[in-house]
Amino acid sequence: MYITSQFDAGAIDIIDAGQPDNIRLNIRADNACEFRQWFYFRIQDVRNTPLTIRLENAGNCTYPQGWEGYQAVASYDRQTWFRIQTDYDGQVLTLQHTPIHNNIFIAYFAPYPYERHRDLIAFANTHAHVSSLGTTIEDRPIDCVTWGTGPLPIWIIARQHPGETMTEWLIEGLINRLFNNNDVIARQIAQLATLHIIPNMNPDGAIHGNLRSNAAGINLNREWMYPSLNNSPEVYHVRNQMHTTGVSLFLDIHGDETIPHVFTDGCGMIPDYPAASLAQEQTFTQLLASTTPDFQTAYGYAPDRFSDEMLTLASKYVGHTFGCVSLTLEMPFKDHNNRPDTTYGWSPIRSQQLGKDLCVPILAHCLSLQNN
């Protein structure tokens, strides 16, 4: 038996891997700060071997409540990820599984590899305008996909927090629908709007296997008031381009560790936020809920959750600055309890489908702005 995390986004610390029924591991911190929750590793030579894996410092992670009701994901081929038995006792997260193949990959959520990101950008390059808005701390491009010819500028960003891999799965689904020339809704959006899509705001953090930070240890979603080239060039460059194009609709795609639902968080708590935009926000979320059972509006964040740091968050900064509908869309690491799936939980396929479903309220929002 051999355990390794020496690959793209791999992350784990080994305490003792001498016995398959008592594998002792620690979840490691992000590369330059103390955020910790993401794990991703491979176990070799374990076909038909019952495994008991103890993540001993789970209770000391950034979101310990995120382990309650959580099931880890595993895969033999890194294509299909399924849930495995997972129990949490308040300190140790225990995973149990008997692999039917010789190697198994285990992760916090289905990874979105950087090579797949490169493939997505290459695919987009044949259907849209692909550019780099700047570079990260480690000199990786901040890829932007610009699509459509309409006058309304729409911005959609994902993976400010690199461990929230479901967000780039969503972007992949969205892009696949937008690029379908036979899709009437996509064609209408293209005529009404120009979409600026950032599939991965934080490629450095993604490759490092970080949960929430970039290579400098910075949480990008607390940098939107005063981004800097030294600490947060990712936000600095994207925000500058937003001010160049303007914003008519903004979606910031995230994953939530604790809440087992898909939901949005809007800008109703911002003082002087336009009443018209608040009404449009409600119309957008209600239409998304009627489009797919994988979205709901009953559960989400408390209105005052971000009161002290409100305008440092992307969606709040954009809503305040541009007065437009500006939403954070959250997907679960666990499952969407309105429609649970015991085999896969919330998954890449469901994330992709949600990306496709977003086209319906996006089009409706564009039509409402055109009519006004």
From TrEMBL:
Entry-linked InterPro entries: Cytosolic_carboxypeptidase (IPR050821), Pepdidase_M14_N (IPR040626), Peptidase_M14 (IPR000834)
Cofactor: Zn(2+)
Gene Ontology biological-process entries: proteolysis
SUPFAM superfamilies: Zn-dependent exopeptidases (SSF53187)
Transmembrane intervals: none
Catalytic residue list: E330 (proton donor/acceptor)
Coiled-coil annotated spans: none
Single GO molecular function: metallocarboxypeptidase activity
Domain Peptidase M14: 108-366
PANTHER family: CYTOSOLIC CARBOXYPEPTIDASE (PTHR12756), CYTOSOLIC CARBOXYPEPTIDASE 1 (PTHR12756:SF11)
Family statement drawn from the similarity comment of this UniProt entry: Belongs to the peptidase M14 family.
Protein name in UniProt: Peptidase
Organism: Sulfuriferula nivalis
